[in-house]
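Quick one: structure tokens for this chain, please?
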Amino acid sequence: MLQAVQIGKFYDSFRLEDISLEIPKGYIVGVLGENGAGKSVLLKIMLGYVKPDKGSVLMDGEDMWESGEVQGQIKNKLGFVLQEDFFSYYNTLLENGLRYGKYYRDFEKGEFLGHLTEFGLEKKRKYGRLSRGEKLKFQFAFALSHHPALLLLDEPLGSFDIAFREKFLTYLRHFVEDGEHSAVMVSHLTQELEHLADYIAILHKGKLLEFSDIEELRERYRLVSGEDYKVNLLKAERVVYKEKGAYSTKALVKHSPFRKYDKELLVETPCLEDIFYYRLKGLGRV
């Protein structure tokens, strides 16, 4: 569906370097990274809001920056929920919806109003008077109402109450289930993505550390724990990072079905949080 090819964006204090990934149809892609890793910049490049200094963004094979006409066609296929405010503070929700909805060929006013009601948003309220969570609900309602092929979501869950989080996740799963729609959700919290995302991209300081199917990612590593001297017997090139505790030592190691482990070591398939933690800790050795 969407491809980022050797994307680079360079600021005075930050560089996003050589990011290549592909968003397949019918899946949710989680983009994980610590604060300042470049997640939001990458999302805005995918959206066409920020122009990369190098590389290209392709939507269904078309370069987003080829021409203004092509960019307009591509943006019709993209919906967003971002932390920034793109809507008018001084207009009501209905006025904002109609004002910006005219730029999307498939925008449906009736559906938009229905989502506002379902999400507990009063159409006559001014956008500027909404809370952060309500603004993100409004963006989500607007995005759903113009029927995008791809949703781009910048850390929305942290601003939603528990009840709406469940509603949002239900909508998101339903959105991709036909195999023709996809979503990209940025987060710095592994628990948000552990059971939601089908694919995971891990960013660190503007570089892409991992991008794969989440199950393939888990199979790539094992979390090994046991007596320190036993863990130290593992070949150094296999160890991503090891950490000595009061009673045992843990290590994330590169795994393959052909590699053997000492029977006195506990060997587990790591969760996403383990992979993220140990990958960042071991950057100097990977």
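Residues 220-281 form one domain.
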